[in-house]
Amino acid sequence: MTADHPGGTPRRLVLASASPARLGLLRQAGLAPEVIVSGVDESKLHAPTPAELALALAEAKAAHVAARPEVSGALVIGCDSVLELDGRALGKPADAAEATARWKEMRGRVGILQTGHCVYDTRAKRYESATASTVVRFGEPTDAEVAAYVASGEPLHVAGAFTLDGRSAPFIDGIDGDPGNVIGLSLPLLRRLLAKLDVGITELWSA
User: Which of 96, 91, 107, 83 lies closest to 147 in space, CA to CA?
Assistant: First the structure.
């Protein structure tokens, strides 16, 4: 294993995302990443499918941060999520009007939350990446409930205009797959990607 833990300090871990949900998931799993936002212009990346787009965005974010001299030796995690609906990739809505229209389109239907994951080992100059997919079954909130939710501002900051762990949770009838993936990061997939880089996730636990 390449990690320095146990018996010393764990490998430095960097999250290339401003998402508080992703940071929270990692901390709950015993990890203590630093946050360095990539600044990648997501609008310039394109891919044939939503799953491939999520993966391309995650790889771009991880690579962008991994290239910085100040993160030399660290493990960099890049993630990005999109909601796949009718074959389209839906990210964060541009404004309240788009969030409202999005919810009226999604309610009573099924979508797939695609989250790209990329772990870049700057020490070994290698990376591993994959996309996790979770089926989301949307409930049927009323127009008044949609309006109230959009007014809260929450859907403007998240892919697909919804969260599983926030105010829209009552509007999600169920999921098939990893709930963490919907929140922002699949911990089981992260463990598998780290293992491919010869890093055990328990060796990254903070004290």
Answer: 96
Task: Report pTM.
Answer: 0.94
Three-state DSSP state, 160: helix
At residue 2, the pLDDT reads 42
Give the torsion sign (CA, 200, 26, 55, 122).
Answer: negative
Question: Under a CB-based contact definition with an 8 Å cutoff, are residues 198 and 205 in contact?
Answer: no
**CB neighbour list of residue 120: distance below 8 Å, 6 or more residues apart:** 62, 63, 65, 66, 75, 76, 78, 126, 127
**Through-space distance between the first and last CA atoms of the chain, rounded to whole angstroms:** 19
* H runs (alpha helix) in the chain: 20-28, 50-66, 96-106, 143-151, 179-183, 187-196
Q: Please return the burial class of 53, using the count of CB atoms within 10 Å of its CB with bins 0-12, 13-18 and 19+.
A: buried
Q: Cβ(77)–Cβ(190) under 8 Å?
A: yes
| Active-site entry in 4, 41, 80, 86 | 80
Has 173 been annotated as catalytic? no
Does 10 have pLDDT greater than 90? no
C-alpha span between 187 and 189 (Å, rounded): 5
The 10s digit of each residue's pLDDT in 74-107 is 999 999 999 999 999 999 999 999 999 999 999 9
Quote the CA–CA distance of 13 and 76 in Å, as a whole number: 6
